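We both want to read C-alpha cells more fluently, so let's practise on a single case. Once you have written the record down, we can walk along the chain together.
***
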Amino acid sequence: MLILCDFERLGTPEAVYDYLQGELRFPAWFGRNLDALHDCLTDIGEPTRLILTGTASPSAQRFLPVIKDAAKRNRNLSVELHEA
C-alpha cells in the first residue's frame, strides 16, 4: 500500500488524523491522539509505504517523531520524507 500525506495541505492535526485513519483503515476505536496513532501504525500487517510531504509545517513536527518511531518498530511500515 502506498499513502501520500501532505501535512501542509492537510493543515490541522484533526485533518491529519482523519486522513490517516481513512487511508490506513484504522479501526473505529482509533483514539485520534499520538499514542493511538503509534499503536495503529505499529499494528499495520501489510507492507505500507508512507510518503510524507510538507514536513516543515508545524503540524508535521507534531506527528513526525511518532511516525518515525512506529516505522522503526514495524517492518511493514516504511517512511519517506519529501519537502517539495
